[in-house]
From TrEMBL:
Pfam families: Aldo_ket_red. This is Inositol utilization protein S. The keyword Oxidoreductase applies. The keyword Oxidoreductase applies.
Amino acid sequence: MLMDPEQVTKVNFQASKLGIGTNKVGGHNLFDGLDDHNGYEVIKEALDSGIQMIDTAYMYGLGRSEQIIGEAIKGYPRENFKIATKAAQDPDNHLSLNNDPAFLKKAVDDALRRLQTDYIDIFYIHFPDERTPKDEAVAALNELKNTGKIRAIGVSNFNLLQIKEANKNGQVDYVEDHYNLVHRDVEKTIWPYLKENHIQFVPYFPLASGLLTGKYTAQDTTQFSEWSTESFEVIINNLKKIKPISEKHQATIAQTVVAWYIANPEISAVIPGARLPEQVANNVAALKVTLSPQEYQTIDQLFGQF
């Protein structure tokens, strides 16, 4: 069933479980054919629709996504939504990964300026570097948390050992990582530790780059080179089996998949992306899908092998 907004452990605010990922808002270095005006309208549509979490990063357009968000949020009460951003790529060193405390502190200040806001709700170390002790990196962010510049500390793309090192002093609030119905490794590798330590989990790529939208057929396997022909066919056939659940709720397969994440108690927020405002509206419609326990289990079991 759909979860009510819940008090997030270790940080004193509530957040809706449906957010928006913004790598297609200003992320010209990541995607071709993006229009900044569309990105601006995507953010406004999200806020107008009641979405309460905007997830961005320096790497999305090398700061451009943050700039567009900073313009789009003007006129909206800041307390009504949360902003999460990330940094690790050093613009002064060919975008090499950097978790140095001084770099992270400067990255927060730079992000605050681009976002035109006084605080960041969640600041993630986007990727681990190979040299900085992770507890020292997090300690630097904790100093900023104590000053109010950021309100929660996150790490992204960290393996279990790196998460443990980062959380040595119990200061990590969030972990963001690759997770969806066809990429479920983290359920075994990091979720037990996160649950034990009251750390929230946010997945990225919830629709597996479009694979889980239901718009592809078994003949489209060449568009997803990650999968063998056999595995791809299993995924497509399983999505067909979800279709009766979707039809019962007058929803698309994509909305039903997003509803499954929303219903998952181990997931703090779901952040599907959008290139156009109408895609935001399609994502928001997932909130109308209230899966029964049996429907939830059916979807869970269909993709259990992944």
